């Protein structure tokens, strides 16, 4: 098999990583609810960080439900997908800095990092969807962050939910095309 065939095979077997994106959609929905609560910003940020602990268990459960094989051991690119997902953790020092120095911007930084980290999946799954949506998420979230007040921070995670739903839909369409 050549590289393109490995990428397309991984794309179909893992369903373009949709199980992780569906888990992220659930988590960003939880974060939206957290930011609608009457807690202080530090408490909201702590709960937001705690909610991210659900990511991997939810992704595993969703993978089983939708029959997505994201750990295809016979495909040399499958581990790369996991490594790309783990790279987001490398940006957590920025999140921790925001927690201490700029707590009202923490959700903004987290959303921009989340959106931007999708970009390399365009190469991995051989789909333009990630290449297009990743920078759009980051730029739109940044613009929203400039425009809103602390009382409306919930709009940032809510926007992420909308983007994730769109991303899931477009990736599912791409997956179906590759199955034909």
Automatic annotation (TrEMBL):
Q: Which UniProt keywords apply?
A: Membrane, Transmembrane, Transmembrane helix
Q: Which domain of life is it from?
A: Bacteria
Keyword Disulfide bond: yes or no?
A: no
Q: Give TM segment ranges.
A: 20-41, 47-68, 80-100, 106-124, 129-148, 154-173
Keyword Nucleotidyltransferase assigned: no
Q: Spell out the protein name for this chain.
A: Nitrate reductase NapE component
Q: Which organism is it from?
A: [Anoxybacillus] calidus
């Amino acid at each position: 098999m050549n590289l393109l065939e490995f990428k397309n095979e991984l794309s179909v077997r893992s369903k373009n990583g949709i199980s992780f994106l569906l888990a992220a959609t659930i988590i960003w929905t939880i974060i939206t609810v957290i930011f609608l609560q009457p807690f202080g910003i530090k408490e909201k940020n702590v709960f937001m960080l705690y909610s991210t602990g659900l990511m991997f268990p939810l992704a595993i459960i969703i993978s089983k439900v939708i029959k997505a094989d994201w750990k295809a051991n016979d495909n040399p690119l499958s581990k790369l997908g996991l490594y790309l997902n783990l790279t987001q953790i490398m940006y957590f020092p920025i999140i921790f800095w925001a927690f201490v120095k700029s707590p009202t911007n923490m959700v903004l930084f987290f959303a921009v990092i989340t959106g931007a980290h999708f970009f390399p999946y365009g190469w991995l799954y051989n789909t333009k969807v990630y290449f297009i949506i990743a920078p759009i998420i980051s730029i739109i979230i940044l613009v929203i962050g400039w425009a809103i007040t602390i009382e409306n921070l919930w709009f940032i995670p809510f926007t992420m939910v909308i983007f994730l739903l769109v991303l899931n839909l477009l990736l599912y369409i791409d997956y179906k095309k590759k199955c034909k």
